[in-house]
Each structure stands twice: as C-alpha cells, then as structure tokens.
Structure to design on (338 residues):
C-alpha cells in the first residue's frame, strides 16, 4: 500500500527557485574541500546551482518531516528526511526547463536551466500525449540523495482541451491533470527505492554482524543484530516475491503509468520507454532481494546454531569446573571432620 500526498507551495516558497536564479552574484574563491592546498573559483552559475540544491533539500526535509510526524510507514521509519521519495513539479510560462528551446543560441554558458535541473538528454523523459510535460530521474548524485523526480511543464504549450472539464485553463486544473498523470510513476519508482533500501540493509547487517562477532560479548551482540534484522524485514520476502511476480507483466505498469519516452543510447536506437525501464529494474532488484534474503537467513540460522553450540560448550566447561570445585570443597570438609 502506498500513500501519495501533494503539497502546494504558496507565497515566497513557490518563487524560491526564481528568486535564487535572479539574484546577482559575483565570482569568489575558496579552498577545495578534499584538498586544502588548492583553491577553486566559484562562478555565479555554480553558486546558483548550490543555492537551488539547498532550497530543494530544505523542501524535501519539510516533506519528510511531515510524513514522519503524521504517517507511519517504511520510509518514515528510516528517519532520513532528506532522502524521502519525492517528486516536484516546476512550471515555466514560456519554453522548456530541461533544455534550451529551438532555435537557441549557444554562447558557451551553461545557463539557468543547468542550475535548475542538471539533467542529461538521455535521462529526460517526454510524455507522448503531452510533450510539454517532461520528467527526469537521473540527476547528478541521485544515489546519494535518494529518489527525487523532477517534472517540468511548459504552461504555454499546455493544450486547453486537457483542462476544459476541470474548470478551464487555471493552475489548479493544470496541477490536477499533472497529478493524475504522474502519480503512478512516483509510486512505482518508490518501489525501486524500497528494494534498494532493503538490499542496502542486508549489506549493512552483514558488516554489523562481523563487527559484533569480533568484539567482547560477541554472542549477545550477534544475537541482537540477527533479532533486529528479522524485526526490520518482517514481511519483506513476501513483498519482494509479489513485486517480482507482477514485474513479469508490462501491462500492469502501462495501466498505472503514462507513456514517457527518451532517445536511445545510440543514434538509430529505438526510443526507450520509462515503464519498461521501471519494470526491468523492479524485476531485477526484486529477484535479487529474494535471493539475498534466502541466503542471509540461511546464514543467520547457521550462525545461530554455531553460537548455540559454542555457548553449550562453554556451559559444559563451567559445569566441569563447578564439579571439580565441589569435589575439592567436599574433600576439604572431610579432612577437617577427621
């Protein structure tokens, strides 16, 4: 079960990106983060990019905090507000946001579009039935930031017949249509993030178990790690099997997700379909998670058995020492009595 909530920004928040892009900036220099001996120049375009990233991170934290406060669930339980699965809709009054309009002069500048999105041509998906609506799931540092889908709408190219039954050409009607078209993509993309988090948890648990077995009180710590893992992944194998089963049928994804396409990787290749990309990734990750779950559970059962045998041996040795000590005490008492 997935819960989808939309947030409408108003006031200064709705114009925060535009404010950062329009703010005048001058180039400055600073020491590099990794190498304090070198200095880098930060131009206005990079400053705007960093300001947009800070604003975007703040908005994602706000959304993650709201979910953590009001809606329990898998992602709320991770307690990582800045990595909560999100999608944002950006609108422009004239022209696309992810690429320069044609024809457009190339003056060698990256431009404000790069600062706003940082998306590549092969990761920009266009809606077949509505070319004015585009999205991107492959931004820079996407793995570090978690799932965040950028969607961009050129309002000037939005056809009025799409909203004539929703109150006319108003922003509320436009947002409603975009919500109806995009909600399935966010839900299915979030299942990918769920599978990635579960696979990551398995790897982290393996490493934690190695550390627990190498320290003092290793048995107690090892059993605690195993117990915590089983508590966290309760129901996970069934979910992975269900996702793997459904990912065999492309029609199930086509029913929930509209047709977004992007050019093929090479010239002459057929356009790539977003639904097929998501289906293939879900199939791969779900099957991998199922195999990893079976493997690690078998490993934990073996570890538990080994720990039980080890503790039994320790208990037997303690009993042997207690028996010897009891005999010594009995012998000493007998000698005193004599």
């Amino acid at each position: 079960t997935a819960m989808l909530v939309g947030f409408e920004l108003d006031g200064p928040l709705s114009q925060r990106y535009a404010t950062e892009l329009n703010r005048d900036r001058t180039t400055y220099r600073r020491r590099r983060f990794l190498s304090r001996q070198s200095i880098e120049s930060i131009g206005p375009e990079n400053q705007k990019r960093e300001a947009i990233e800070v604003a975007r991170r703040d908005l994602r934290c706000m959304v993650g905090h709201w979910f953590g406060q009001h809606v329990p669930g898998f992602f709320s339980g991770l307690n990582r507000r800045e990595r909560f699965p999100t999608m944002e809709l950006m609108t422009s009054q004239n022209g696309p946001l992810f690429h320069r309009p044609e024809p457009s002069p190339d003056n060698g500048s990256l431009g404000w579009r790069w600062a706003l999105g940082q998306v590549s041509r092969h990761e920009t998906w266009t809606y077949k039935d509505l070319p004015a609506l585009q999205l991107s799931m492959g931004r820079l540092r996407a793995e570090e930031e978690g799932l965040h889908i950028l969607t961009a709408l050129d309002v000037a190219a939005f056809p009025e017949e799409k909203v004539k039954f929703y109150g006319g050409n108003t922003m509320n009607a436009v947002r409603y249509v975009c919500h109806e078209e995009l909600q399935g993509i966010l839900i299915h993309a979030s299942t990918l993030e769920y599978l990635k988090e579960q696979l990551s948890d398995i790897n982290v648990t393996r490493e934690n178990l190695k550390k627990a077995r190498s320290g003092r009180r290793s048995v107690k710590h090892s059993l605690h790690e195993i117990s915590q893992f089983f508590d966290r992944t309760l129901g996970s194998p069934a979910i992975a099997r269900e996702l793997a089963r459904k990912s065999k049928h492309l029609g199930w994804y086509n029913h929930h997700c509209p047709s977004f396409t992007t050019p093929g990787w090479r010239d002459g290749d057929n356009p790539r379909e977003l639904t097929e990309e998501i289906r293939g990734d879900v199939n791969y990750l779900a099957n991998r998670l199922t195999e990893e779950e079976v493997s690690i559970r078998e490993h934990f059962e073996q570890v538990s058995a080994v720990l039980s045998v080890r503790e039994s041996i320790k208990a037997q040795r303690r009993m042997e020492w207690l028996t010897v000590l009891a005999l010594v005490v009995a012998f000493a008492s007998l000698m005193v009595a004599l």
The first helix runs from residue 16 to 22.
